[in-house]
Write a structure and sequence with these properties.
heterodimer; A: 253 residues; B: 318 residues; alpha/beta; Rossmann fold; Alpha-Beta Plaits; 2 domains; four-stranded antiparallel β-sheet; 14 strands; 30% strand; elongated
């Protein structure tokens, strides 16, 4: 009970601050919007190999990629924690008996809420372009990217608390997220990839997420890709939460 | 005793290039702090004050030794220690975009205090620390002194038995510093034991009931400021004389009130128990022999002299 109360307390505070300064929510949608407007039409033509590609089909392939991309950015949560660290807020939290898992989870859940808001918005904005997706399928897809956000934002927090400086954080994040992003088949499905690239991509958990979300947007919730994505994300998320809350609990110099 | 530590130790590994060095930040600290006193930790930067404080506040795990704080064992039950202490960090603890009131309410709630009571406590703390006027403005609009007062209010919002203040006045202007001393005394009046660190001599002298002087990770002296000063050689009377200093010095060979005598090129330095009563004797002795006096100066020992006597260095220099 104390844990739930503590989590709520941390979450509430984070939400309050987010709403007070919602610029990050906006920034988070601008990039996928650019892709939606400036890149999707190009991609539709590229995918139109046999001349049967429709707008609906193109956006069913493209929007899931955008959702995974937005979720991937939640790893950048670590920058926020460095600012909190510097302001002394983390230390102030750590001298109280508040649950260490709550300190992490309350923050990560804020990131999940933000992601879900962005995901819904991106999806809705694609509808006028021709996207068609079932509500149930979309909700399940949001669950997948939500889990992914939980996983990545908690990892980002642990990274920020460990590296303690934006200067160290930026190159690490860029180096790690770039290949993950490319190997997740966000822009183009990896079906076009040469075999060796596919083999490498199989080790990227978020490639499975993209596949799962695409299957859902295509209206195939029974597709293997859906349960596979869930089966890969869930244990990873639990592990990330466990390890990251240990970082919160540990004495940070 | 509300704080009792024994042989508390902490070392850090630091990397310089390819070499890793172990730095012993705190090497065996034994402390006894009585309930209701303002206890000060005086020492130069890097002496291990903050490290010790952070260990006592459960932020750092000690490598060895024991500590009991407000009846709770630091090593075995840090959670209970957290409930009984407050901690105010050196670098501040407020978030720019939150208001003082929000910070106080949230912090109280993190100690398990209910919503209504947290609000009440926050309001009261804002009153006590003269912050009511700014309570609903964002912290980034506060002055350094105001922000520091919010920090202190945060540290005591749950009515702890002991409150740790790490360099509470560092970075404040003289006026805010004087104000802060008042706030610290207020905490003692509220019945709290205050444990603070400082590298200001005047602060340690004026504010602390008792203090420990720390250097290189160890406590080199402990006591009330008055006792510590008494421990050093007492007052110093310096006399500038014209002519041969050595000859003048000989006049004090049999003077019982002089504990020790040093000479420089132009001056005599007489260490005496009480300078005020010694000066007339000194003047008479010199005058009787026709020594011309150019000036006389009485120097009462400061905590810096204590530090000098214990470590061989001046605190001002280190």
């Amino acid at each position: 009970m104390k844990f739930l109360r503590d989590t709520w307390l941390v979450f509430q505070r984070q939400m309050q601050l987010l709403l007070r300064n919602p610029v990050w929510v906006i920034v988070g949608i601008i990039q996928p919007m650019f892709f939606l407007l400036l890149f999707a039409p190009l991609m539709k033509q590229a995918l139109n190999v046999d001349g049967t590609m429709t707008d609906a089909r193109a956006y069913q392939i493209f929007v899931p990629g955008m959702l995974v991309m937005v979720a991937l950015f939640s790893a950048f949560s670590g920058f926020g924690i460095i600012a909190e660290l510097r302001a002394g807020v983390i230390e102030r939290n750590r001298v109280t008996p508040v649950s260490r898992v709550a300190l992490l989870l309350g923050r990560s859940l804020r990131d999940v809420v933000q992601l879900l808001f962005q995901a819904v918005l991106v999806t809705l904005l694609a509808v006028p372009f021709g996207l068609r997706v079932g509500v149930g399928d979309a909700l399940l897809a949001f669950l997948l990217v939500g889990l992914m956000t939980l996983l990545l934002s908690s990892t980002g927090y642990a990274l920020g608390l460990t590296l303690r400086s934006e200067d160290a954080m930026a190159p690490v994040l860029n180096t790690v997220t770039q290949p993950i992003m490319l190997l997740a088949g966000i822009f183009l499905p990896l079906t076009f990839a040469p075999q060796w690239l596919k083999n490498v991509a199989d080790f990227n958990p978020f490639k499975w997420t993209t596949d799962g979300v695409r299957a859902l947007f295509a209206g195939n919730p029974g597709d293997d890709a859906v349960w596979q994505a869930l089966a890969i994300l869930t244990p990873l998320t639990v592990l990330a939460l466990y390890l990251s809350s240990r970082v919160f609990a540990k004495s940070v110099r | 005793m509300i704080i009792e530590t024994s042989a508390l130790r902490k070392s850090f590994r630091s990397r310089a290039g390819r070499e890793t060095k172990t730095v012993e930040a705190v090497r065996g600290v034994d402390l006894n702090v009585a309930e209701g006193e303002i206890f000060g930790f005086l020492g130069p930067n890097g002496a291990g004050k903050t490290t010790t404080l952070r260990m006592l506040a459960t932020l750092l795990e000690p490598d060895g030794g024991t500590a009991v704080i407000a009846g709770a064992d630091l090593r075995k039950n840090p959670g209970e220690v957290r409930r009984r202490i407050g901690y105010v960090a050196q670098g501040g603890s407020t978030w720019d975009d939150s208001t003082g009131r929000e910070e106080l309410v949230l912090h109280a709630r993190m100690y398990g205090i209910g919503k209504a009571e947290a609000r009440e406590r926050a309001a009261k703390a804002l009153e006590t620390f003269e912050l009511a006027e700014y309570a609903d403005r964002r912290c980034k609009t506060y002055s350094g002194g105001q922000r520091r007062r919010v920090d202190i209010a945060l540290g005591i919002i749950h009515s702890p038995k002991v409150v740790f203040l790490d360099e509470p006045t560092t970075g404040l202007d003289p006026q805010s510093r004087a104000h802060m001393w008042g706030e610290v005394r207020k905490l003692r009046e509220m019945g709290m034991t205050v444990f603070l660190t400082t590298h200001y001599l005047d602060e340690a002298d004026a504010l602390c009931d008792r203090l420990a002087i720390m250097d290189h990770g160890q406590i080199v002296a402990e006591g009330t400021p008055a006792d510590l000063k008494q421990e050093v050689l007492g007052d110093v009377v310096s006399v500038n004389v014209r002519g041969e200093v050595g000859k003048a010095a000989d006049l004090f060979d049999n003077a019982e009130y002089v504990r020790k005598l040093e000479t420089t090129e132009q001056a005599l330095r007489l260490y005496v128990e009480d300078g005020a009563t010694a000066i007339p004797h000194v003047l008479r002795t010199l005058d009787a022999d026709g020594v011309v006096i150019d000036g006389i100066e009485l120097h009462r020992p400061s905590l810096d002299d204590v530090f000098l006597a214990k470590t061989g260095r001046s605190l001002r220099e280190s």
